[in-house]
Amino acid sequence: MLGFGIGNYYGVAGAIFYILAHSLAKGLLFLTSGSVVHATGTRNIKKLAGLGERMSTTSWSFKIGGLSLTGIPPLVGFFAKLFIIIGAIQAGFIWIAMFAILLSGVTLAYLLKIETNVFMKKGKIDAKAAPFTMRIAMVFLVVLIVLMGVGFQPIMDFIIGPAAQALLRGLEYANLVFGPFTMNF
């Protein structure tokens, strides 16, 4: 919403790109959470210590999803947040850019709490491996997050950029989506 509210090209493009990046990262984090619940039968973070050694695919997937959500380069979340910040600076909203960076720090803090308590802390939890299909889905999302981060330019040029330009043209976008609007009185 921040990027759309800024209203310039980089703000709107960043907002669209962030929807994509956020859906990949959050989807991955929810999948890792489901994997943990499936393997342990609990959601109690205090009982989950030691899963990093027992569930390495889930652990690494959580790290990548969390880092992308936080906005760490070269993952897709970094470029989405960067474009919003560039848009805010270009519009003269330095305080919004600073606020966006601060929110990334808050995101890092709460994800780091989960990372340290569940995957980094030593423990003796009894956990079965996540099903193969869950692990494949996690790896697939990790690959998308990395590839869309490293190869963000074609995505910007051919998908995000044209969508942002269309949104910035206002009524032209509505006509493109809904067809020409005519009033019959």
SSE blueprint:
Elements: H1 2-6, H2 9-40, H3 51-54, H4 56-70, H5 76-90, H6 94-120, H7 132-150, H8 152-168, H9 171-178
Helix pairs in contact: 2-4, 2-5, 2-7, 2-8, 4-6, 4-7, 5-6, 5-7
- Percent in strands: under 5%
Number of E-state strands: 0
**Radius of gyration, CA atoms, in whole angstroms:** 20 Å
The overall pLDDT, averaged over residues, is: 91
Task: Kindly name the structural category.
Answer: mainly alpha
Percentage of helical residues?
over 70%
Element string (H = helix, E = strand): HHHHHHHHH
Low-confidence stretches: none
Tell me the count of domains.
1
Sum up the overall morphology in one term: elongated
**Terminal-residue CA separation:** 36 Å
Largest sheet: none
By DSSP (H or I, 4+ residues per run), the number of helices equals 9
Overview of this structure, please?
It is a single chain. The protein has 185 residues and is mainly α. It has one domain. It is built from 9 helices and no strands. Helix 2 packs antiparallel against helix 5, helix 2 crosses helix 8 and helix 5 packs parallel to helix 7. The longest helix has 32 residues. It starts with a helix and ends in a 7-residue tail after the last helix. The mean pLDDT is 91.
